[in-house]
Amino acid sequence: MKIISCVHLHKNYVSPKVTTFVLKDINLDIHSGDFCGITGPSGSGKTTLLYTMSGLEKPTSGEVFLFEKEVAQYEPKQMAAIRKTKIGFVFQFYNLIPNLNAYENVKLAQIIAEKNDDPEIDRILGLVGMKEFKEYFPNELSGGMQQRIAIARSLINDPEIIFADEPTGNLDQKNGQEIMGILKMLNRDQHKTIVLVTHSEDNLKYCTRHVKLTDGKIIRDEELPV
């Protein structure tokens, strides 16, 4: 099933002096169960594509379909509900709240979604190997551990899609591999669709699909061996 579709997608940024053409006629389908790695040089439009597919950015022209409905047709409340429960985000910088411990950072995502399930928080923290550190604050955790908490936060409301923007970009090789291993497990065992933006070609070994951008255009779209 197509879970995301981009149809003749263009994205421009306009300033008083210049118009920057970031995405140029993108046509792309992401299917349920894909682990899609998006690569390309800096400035190629990778992050803009991820943000536009997830509804965080509006396209200049063209269409984006999310869960088989055009994003522009969702009411603001509907889109907010989707971001709370059907999609999750993991970023390069973990965006944890410093005065909340690991458990509370994950709990906050539940509260925002108007849910209350403490045993599920423990389960998710265990899934990413962080249950024993749930009372630690972000400044007491390594970068890799903080990213595990960020992943747990993205998972707590059982989303169908995880959008990950350079999740290993701030980590050393060992921690980066561990984070990619967690994402692979979530795709393989928890059946999460994952859209990953990465500078690292090495991360593609965890993916089932590779989309490469250059100058705002798709120059490669291929299935990868599992």
Compute the gyration radius: what is it?
Answer: 17 Å
Q: Low-confidence parts lasting 5 or more residues at pLDDT below 50?
A: none
Q: Which sheet architecture does the biggest sheet show?
A: 6 strands, mixed
Category by helix and strand content = alpha/beta
Series of secondary-structure elements, N-terminal to C-terminal? EEEHEEHEHHHEHEEE
Specify the number of helices.
Answer: 6
Helix content: 25-40%
* pLDDT averaged over residues: 93
Features:
226 residues; alpha/beta; 6-stranded mixed beta sheet; 4-stranded antiparallel beta sheet
Task: Write the SSE topology.
Elements: E1 2-14, E2 19-31, E3 35-39, H1 46-53, E4 61-66, E5 69-70, H2 76-85, E6 87-91, H3 102-112, H4 118-127, H5 143-155, E7 161-165, H6 173-189, E8 193-197, E9 209-214, E10 217-223
Parallel strand pairs: 3-8, 3-9, 6-7, 7-8
Antiparallel strand pairs: 1-2, 1-4, 4-5, 9-10
Can you walk through the features of this model?
The structure is a single chain. This protein has 226 residues and is of the alpha/beta class. The protein contains 6 helices and 10 strands. The protein has a 6-stranded mixed β-sheet with strand order 6-7-8-3-9-10, with helices on both faces. A 4-stranded antiparallel β-sheet has the order 2-1-4-5, with helices on one face. Helix 3 packs parallel to helix 5. The longest helix is centred in the last third of the chain and has 17 residues. The model has no long low-confidence stretch (mean pLDDT 93).
